[in-house]
Amino acid sequence: MIDLTPLHRALATLDTALAARGQAPADALIRDACIQRFEYSYELTHKFLRRYLETSEPAGVHQLSFPNLIRLGYE
Q1: Considering only CA atoms, which of 44, 46, 40 is closest in space to residue 17?
Q2: Which of 13, 20, 65, 70 is nearest to 39 (CA)?
Q3: Which residues are within 8 A (CB) of 71 and not within 5 positions of it... i.e. 6 or more apart?
Q4: pLDDT digits (tens, 9 = 90+) for 7-45
């Protein structure tokens, strides 16, 4: 079983930043924080999806392109 705690934490920080952005939409610093938090949440999601697929279908998952990885994850 894969521990998704880091991903949950990353998404929680993204939610916090987005809530702050809603309260101060003109603040460039908050905008930048939202972008940064989205980027690391996105990367973690990508890594966890790859790790999950490698546990169920280890052959060739590391060679898949990102679109094919998403397609396989959807199946």
Answers
A1: 40
A2: 13
A3: none
A4: 999 999 999 999 999 999 999 999 999 999 999 999 999
